[in-house]
Amino acid sequence: MGIFDFIFGIKKRQISELLEKGAIILDVRTQREWDKDHIENAKHIPLDDLKNHMAELQKLDKPVITCCASGARSAKAAEYLALNNIIATNGGSWLSLKTKMPI
Questions:
Q1: Count of the separate structural domains present in the chain
Q2: DSSP letters of 35-84?
């Protein structure tokens, strides 16, 4: 097993564990990106609008897995959520995250 397999294996397990704990998937891409395709049952809040939905997300009282197109915006979203006392992890790109999800 190579280092990348090891790292991505850990990330896949972490995501699986969060989903088992009832985590929600939060897609922070734009509306246009979301409309093209997305993960079924994911919640959509564009990154630029995230601050307006903090009370809603805090009320859910669930861990959050963020995703976007490449992982850059989702990293910012996860950091912002964590600063607001929400357990959050960056799931990276939504396509990559979709492949890590248990079937």
A1: 1
A2: HH---TT-EE--GGGGGGGHHHHHHHT--EEEEESSSHHHHHHHHHHHHT
